[in-house]
Design a protein that fits this description.
The complex is a heterodimer of chains A (104) and B (165). Chain A is elongated and about 55 Å long. Chain A has helices at 8-28, 32-56, 61-91. In chain A, helix 1 packs antiparallel against helix 2 (32-56) and helix 2 runs antiparallel to helix 3. With 104 residues, chain A is an all-alpha fold. Chain A has 3 helices and no strands. The longest helix of chain B is centred in the middle third of the chain and has 26 residues, at 50-75. Chain B has 165 residues and is mainly alpha-helical. Chain B has a single domain (2-79, 124-164), classed as NADH-ubiquinone/plastoquinone oxidoreductase chain 6, subunit NuoJ (Four Helix Bundle (Hemerythrin (Met), subunit A)). Chain B contains 6 helices and no strands. Chain B is 76% helix and 0% strand. Chain B is extended. The chains are: A mainly alpha (104), B mainly alpha (165). The interface between A and B is large, with 70 and 80 residues.
Chain lengths: 104, 165
């Protein structure tokens, strides 16, 4: 036992920090590749919560859901990058501000 | 020991996360994200989730990041021009984010005594328990997820292929 034990709250705070950083990156950056990476960061923050509470309640269900979240993140990254490549082929840019076909 | 490891790797994760946001070049962001994922794998090991840690390293730091780096190289994505942010966002963005995070941390610390502690290595769910739960209780979600991945593979192929006119 250490002097100052690590509790579930520490993991939740770390998760919140990563979630806020990811959301800030998603809103601030204009490169679509970096925006997709910020989404991956947010999904990772969710996974910390799931695994930490799986440990907290001594149940394996949280880890099962973490696996589902990872799978969905993989699918999202594959489709997102596919869309990105198709977009680059048509418009020649990966900057979100320059892709304004639907904007008046 | 677990305290030192937690503080060290949580700091690495947060610093790499900030680096992901502020890096000018996408390849720097990708390397920062690999740093985040590696340190999170160590944190999963601290929580006694060996299988999730291995999946984190293999699937995230391996497969997904290779895909990202591949796309960055393929598209030859260069540095991003500095964005025209309005002055309220430039002035208030970081302080408000810090205040929000501090509020979150304060509330969690208030709730912490009733939540109990997480000690290192007291709860070991190996891949055996995980697999048993996954293939007994969550068999239907598992199969539905496989259909989702199949659709994603087909979608990626259809979206990224060259059109034949």
């Amino acid at each position: 036992m250490s002097l100052y034990p690590i509790t579930t709250a520490h993991y939740v705070i770390l998760s919140g920090a990563l979630l806020l950083i990811g959301a800030a990156g998603l809103l601030m950056r204009r490169n679509i590749i970096v925006m997709l990476m910020a989404i991956e960061l947010i999904l990772n923050a969710v996974n910390i919560n799931l695994v930490a509470f799986s440990k907290h309640w001594q149940q394996v269900t949280g880890q099962v859901f973490a696996i589902f979240v990872i799978t969905v993140a993989v699918a999202e990254a594959a489709v997102g990058l596919g869309i990105l490549i198709a977009l680059f082929r048509h418009r020649g840019t990966v900057i979100a501000d320059e892709i304004d076909l639907l904007k008046w | 020991m677990d305290l030192i490891l937690f503080i060290l790797f949580a700091t690495i994760a947060v610093v790499c996360g900030i680096s992901l946001v502020v890096q000018k070049h996408p390849i720097g962001s990708a390397l920062s994200l690999i740093g985040v994922m590696g340190s999170l794998a160590v944190l999963y090991l601290l929580l006694g989730a060996e299988f999730i840690a291995a999946v984190q390293l293999i699937v995230y730091a391996g497969a997904i990041m290779v895909l990202f780096v591949f796309v960055i190289m393929l598209l030859n994505a260069g540095e991003e021009a500095p964005g025209g942010k309005s002055w309220p966002s430039r002035l208030l963005g970081v302080p408000l984010l810090t205040v929000f995070l501090g509020l979150l941390a304060y509330l969690m610390q208030l709730m912490a005594p009733s939540m109990g502690m997480v000690t290192f290595g007291s709860f070991n769910t190996g891949a055996k328990e995980l697999g048993r739960s996954l293939f007994n209780n969550y068999l239907l979600p598992f199969e539905v997820t496989s259909v989702l991945v199949l659709i994603a593979i087909l979608g990626a192929i259809v979206l990224a292929r060259k059109e034949i006119d």
